[in-house]
Write a structure and sequence with these properties.
Blueprint (H helix, E strand, L loop, with lengths): L1 H34 L4 H18 L14
Helix pairs in contact: 1-2
């Protein structure tokens, strides 16, 4: 049970990190589009790039090691 709780906490932290990362990228692109007049194709590329960054960050659980719990 302690290992499951540790994994759940790390997963929650990863989900929040991915959420704020995606929101930050989108807010930055929207701000640039509103002020500088960013072309649509750059906005689309940044959205796709943000998706790839979040997807790559989501692969971290594959590297997590759970320590065995001794009784």
């Amino acid at each position: 049970l302690p290992a499951a709780i540790a994994i759940a906490r790390r997963s929650r932290r990863l989900v929040l990190t991915n959420l704020f990362l995606a929101l930050g990228i989108n807010v930055a692109v929207i701000a640039l589009a509103a002020t500088v007049g960013l072309p649509l194709w750059i906005s689309v590329l940044s959205d796709s790039g943000g998706l790839l960054v979040v997807l790559a960050n989501s692969l971290w659980p594959l590297m997590w090691r759970v320590r065995p719990v001794s009784a």
